[in-house]
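Quarterly update from the structural biology core.
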Amino acid sequence: MKILLVDDDPDLVAVIAFALQQSGFLVIQSRDGAQAFEAFNAETPDLAILDINMPLLNGFELAQRIRQRSQIPIIMLTVRREEEDVVRALGLGADDYLTKPFSPRILIARVKALLRRAGVESEGEIKSGRLLLRIDDLVLEGVSVDAINLTPLEMRFLQLLLVNAGRTVATERILSHVWGHRAGGNRQLLKQLVHRLRQKLEKDPTAPRILRTVPNSGYVLDPEVTAAEEPLP
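Predicted structure, tokenized:
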């Protein structure tokens, strides 16, 4: 389940993104309206959280553009309290409105309520082929194996790859999603994370078929292999 999160406050984005990721959502982060609209077109998120006061393209304009193309739920964030802003946001097609400061728990509750209303509620599961990722473990459906226990970092990494199964995910995007913009992730730590995951996923970790490296680019989860009849170790 993809959430587009747009705000020009990096500290607020980090807090909200972490809370959403802990709840099992994949977060696509943008710092301005123009970048966010490009991300919306490329990623097709299931819900958008938009700040009103943003550079290049404000939240009102972005909500209007999104609504012209999609009926996904939209939540507006702002420090403003004027009634006309609420009326304008709702008139442009926003589904909910939160005034800063707010509790991340309240935001997540609103997100889940809107997704339920839209009929796309997430149960914290992502599936590709016979791989089913739950909040803290991985299951190979149809094969009699125990769930594969995952660390929080492994879970966030696989979450990103499963949502983009079959497509290369850039290294920088992985670092941002797994460790956050300011949490100190680097390429060496990522290589260690990949090594640990391959020990859990691959029949032969020295010749990976499920979690593959794309030289000078990133990593890809192969959906054809995850759907293959050969069981995981």
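The chain has a mean pLDDT of 81.
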